[in-house]
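User: I've been trying to design a sequence by hand for this structure and keep getting stuck. Would you show me what you'd pick, starting by listing the structure so we're on the same page?

Assistant: Good idea, let's start from the same input. This is the structure you sent:
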């Protein structure tokens, strides 16, 4: 049996194989648009997410406004979330030491920053880096409030990828979590937060 197997494999290996055809790499790696931030806002809104542009000075107040509108009382957050973002009147559970799954699941939502954002696709990319925390924090709660700085927005996917470390745990978020069945009935909140709210900080 071993001899027959070896004979068959040897015959297969002896079959000449063509060299793979070269893959053209002449696609665009950078694009220019008049207003990348405006394009990002427009595309995020297309995904049924809520997005608002704010200034650096008014960011803490606008975070408070978002939480007040939803009647939020308990939020989880990465341990390095800026103190000024932790709105008074809301109970903050920082992920240090790491929160259990049940603690994250029982929270009203999560507040994070982002690694980079893509204007053309309206996508936010998280890499578990600064102000983002573990991936679980942004996948389990039903509400995600995300702060994106204008200088984190790139126009195209290739430009965004150049700012990312491929060895990190990357999560690409394009609107609230949603899926459709064969009859195209949309169901939200299956694979992540049902509600995504984005505050874009103009620099």
């Amino acid at each position: 049996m071993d001899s027959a197997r070896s004979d068959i494999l040897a015959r297969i290996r002896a079959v000449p194989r063509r060299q793979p055809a070269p893959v053209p790499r002449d696609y665009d790696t950078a694009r220019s648009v008049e207003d990348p931030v405006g394009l990002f806002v427009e595309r995020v809104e297309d995904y049924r997410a809520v997005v608002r542009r704010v200034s650096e000075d008014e960011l803490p107040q606008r975070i408070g406004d978002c939480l007040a509108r939803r009647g939020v009382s308990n939020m989880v957050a990465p341990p390095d979330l800026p103190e000024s973002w932790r709105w008074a009147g809301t109970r903050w559970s920082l992920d240090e030491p790491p929160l259990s799954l049940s603690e994250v699941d029982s929270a009203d939502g999560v507040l994070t920053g982002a690694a980079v954002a893509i204007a053309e696709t309206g996508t936010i990319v998280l890499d578990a880096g600064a102000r983002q925390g573990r991936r679980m924090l942004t996948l389990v709660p039903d509400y995600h409030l995300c702060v994106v700085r204008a200088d984190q927005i790139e126009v195209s996917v290739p430009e965004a990828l150049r700012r990312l470390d491929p060895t990190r745990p990357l999560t690409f978020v394009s609107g609230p979590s949603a899926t459709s069945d064969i009859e195209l009935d949309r169901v939200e909140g299956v694979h992540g937060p049902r509600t995504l709210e984005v505050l874009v900080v103009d620099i």
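That's my pick for every position. To get oriented when you compare it with your attempt: Residues 2-14 form the longest helix (13 residues). The longest strand covers residues 195-202.
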